[in-house]
Design a protein that fits this description.
Shape: flat
Radius of gyration: 23 Å
Number of strands: 5
Order of helices and strands: HHHHEEHEHHEEHHHH
Mean pLDDT: 95
Structural class: alpha/beta
Number of helices: 11
Distance between the termini: 77 Å
Length: 253
């Protein structure tokens, strides 16, 4: 009979596909420690099934418009911050996409977003981001800058999409058919993937800016108006990456 520590190592090393066999092998082992391991594995499988069901729910729009073929999700990150660019993501996923945990990027931890970024980048049929800098945001306003970033992202794709699924907006100046979906990043797997690519890209940019302007805490606040950020803005004044049109109520000329 194996020691409990040896069995624990088996469960820890097992992938999800191997858990049912392990559970069957040890579910009759009366030792309390083993039963805890079995119970924990059963919970993992239950959560996995729930995640698979959630993922299928995220494919409703992709299935509805399946006849279009190449369906592209489009979303942005960074409309609200006082500093930094607005970034848009465009992602065309394979029709049989089974990447677990894709969701509205705001509902995911930074670690999970980074993990999913790499998975999406490796498995998407095509993906790209568009970046519009603060000067341009001040010049044309944030809504138009968001549209510009989205057009950039779509234009960089190596595969031309036949349909766009957008988070809430209809992008002007684009000839491809579009479907705007309110809260689409939580309703469409394609838009959710785009939101992750945009968010991770922008967060990385803001961490780079943090090394240049360490007083403002950009690595933590990502340019949003946190208390510490506002205090630094008043103390040190704006940086070249601050949006002048956004900070006029917080600083004097």
């Amino acid at each position: 009979m194996k020691k409990i520590e040896e069995i624990r190592e088996l469960f820890q090393a097992a992938c999800f596909d191997e858990l049912p066999e392990l559970i069957e092998s040890y579910e009759r082992d009366a030792r309390q420690g083993v039963q805890k391991l079995v119970s924990s594995a059963q919970k993992k499988l239950t959560l996995l099934e729930k995640e698979k069901e959630r993922l299928e729910g995220l494919k409703v729009y992709e299935k509805k418009y399946d006849s279009y073929g190449a369906i592209c999700g489009v979303d942005e990150a960074g409309r609200g911050p006082l500093a930094g660019p607005v970034v848009a993501g465009a992602v065309i996923l394979p029709g049989d996409c089974d990447i677990l945990y894709i969701n509205d990027s705001k509902k995911l931890s930074e670690k999970k977003r980074e993990e999913l970024y790499d998975v999406i980048a490796g498995r998407a049929r095509a993906w790209a981001v568009g970046i519009v800098l603060p000067e341009r945001i001040d010049e044309i306003n944030i809504l138009q800058a968001t549209y510009e970033a989205m057009r950039q992202a779509i234009g960089k794709l190596t595969l031309m999409p036949k349909l766009l699924l957008n988070d809430a907006v209809t992008i002007p100046g684009v000839d491809i058919p579009q479907v705007p979906i309110i809260k689409g990043d939580a309703k469409s797997i394609s838009i959710g993937a785009a939101s992750i690519m945009a968010k991770v890209t922008r967060d990385r940019i803001m961490r780079e800016y943090d090394s240049i302007f360490p007083q403002y805490g950009f690595a933590e606040n990502k340019g949003y108006g946190s208390l510490a950020h506002l205090e630094a803005l008043r103390k040190y004044g704006p940086t070249p990456i601050h949006r002048k049109s956004f900070i006029k109520n917080f600083v004097t000329d």
